[in-house]
Amino acid sequence: MVPPFDATAAPSAAMTPPATSPGERAEPGLVAGTRAVFFVSDSTGITAETLGSALLANFPGARFERHTIPFLGSVTAVDAVVARLDRSAAQGTGDAPIVFATVKDAGIRGRLADAGAVVIDLLAGHLTELEAELGATAETRAGQYHGLGDLEQYFRRMRAVEFAIEHDDGQSGRDLASADVIIVAPSRCGKTPTTMYLALHYGLLVANYPLTDDDFPTDGLPRIVAPHAERCFGLTTTALRLSQVRHERRPHSTYASLAQCTLEIRRAEDLYRRTHIPFLSSATRSVEEMSAVILQSMNLRDRPRERPTP
Amino acid sequence: MVPPFDATAAPSAAMTPPATSPGERAEPGLVAGTRAVFFVSDSTGITAETLGSALLANFPGARFERHTIPFLGSVTAVDAVVARLDRSAAQGTGDAPIVFATVKDAGIRGRLADAGAVVIDLLAGHLTELEAELGATAETRAGQYHGLGDLEQYFRRMRAVEFAIEHDDGQSGRDLASADVIIVAPSRCGKTPTTMYLALHYGLLVANYPLTDDDFPTDGLPRIVAPHAERCFGLTTTALRLSQVRHERRPHSTYASLAQCTLEIRRAEDLYRRTHIPFLSSATRSVEEMSAVILQSMNLRDRPRERPTP
Predict the structure, then answer these.
(1) Domain locations along chain A
(2) What whole-number distance in Å separates Cα of residue B97 and Cα of residue B102?
(3) Which residue of B55, B208, B245 is the best one to mutate when testing the A interface, meaning the one whose CB has the most A CBs within 10 A?
């Protein structure tokens, strides 16, 4: 049983370490040829995981066993983490574990450096470069990129996620005029996760609308989205990929058949071309890549900051 | 009008540069005392934005004007970006722009280094460290952290987002037994964005359930979630913050009154303590921080990899 967090105490004290503290956990034996990797952070660990994973992706021949240790120094005790790294170094192949660290406190960084691990410091070196360039000392207690932000930003994000839920899969035509983007596509081309990513990370109001057989008899976009054509963005994919994805939902259905998928994809792409709406294939792209292309092509990167406060 | 992407062409060729290419865009005049910052990437730019912003957050006294240039070398022409950086350096205060770069191609990195900008290379140095440690050469064409991943991973993510939408705000009790976490809280404590973040980034099945006045007459958790108490996680906040957030939705309502908020928060925290479910205050935490605490305290970090393929 995880002990309850005491929400009434101060922020950092509120996060009582779980009964099995991540710093004390016994390491499972490493598979031969696998290197232990730790993402260690005094905050959420998201930055360490993101950049560390981006770096490791360049070594496709190597195998890694990944562990994330967040909130080091507040929730997670430094001693226990150093001991865990030392244990990891002593076992298996004997290769020192690799640590991707985003730790601001110089004292804690020093302790980590003493562990039997290869520490790749993702913050400190660049902070020094920035200090030199900006002629200012980094206030390492001030910065918290994944911190709270202001209330307005919080409202925008909450509103965006709620708008996305309300307008998922054409559920509501209400307030479609407020949408920053309307993603249109046949079923299972990736509308929903892309919508959610844009809402959550950029605070954009994103609706999505399915293109079903019923929408194709006419020459244009579905009636509800047609007045907003200039804010529409289309998704497509390959018929083979679409069929795979649909089989996962409804195996051996007409819906998932290659013939049906081929037909729907061809009709959708024809529609996009005829109505001059930009479109993109999700077949070879992640949700992040699709979101980045949509932001760029619809010129939406700076939009949230321009939106007037309500 | 943004030209349509040709989805049938090869991935990189498919992304025709928008009519106003980001590399060619004229810079708006900088406000005095503001430093131009560019996040430049040959991929989505997400890693550059994440780490670059984390670094800048340590200089709260400085003002930055941020620009993201993704897909450099494929969609975005290098020459135009170098020219844009040079223009930026020449205008305003005359301070060189700061560039956070995640560019793998050594040739493109070399070109960027020649621009009149301070280039902070977020990848190359660390790649060299890793090469030395792993005794392998980085295959910079292989790695794409924000790339597609495998189909199973894609399915999991899609399923997770759909589960989150279906189970938002107690809408459905169906299949609640499959949930990895059930977030419970009074209205407007941050259930929905936290749910979506966990679903989108960790592929977890997350439901959320509101605690309304009706749920409090009894001694325990709401009837629908009670059988799953060991997977429940509670959110709370301060009455003042809750009142602010509710005023934004329904100004001057009883719902948003400080008295009502005080009452609901007290009841919710009492319930969490009585039923021994872990909880956390969203008053001083971002969605990312709450997600990281929930992952850690519920021991969910490695869960998706353990889930059997369907």
Answers:
(1) 11-134, 151-306
(2) 16
(3) B55
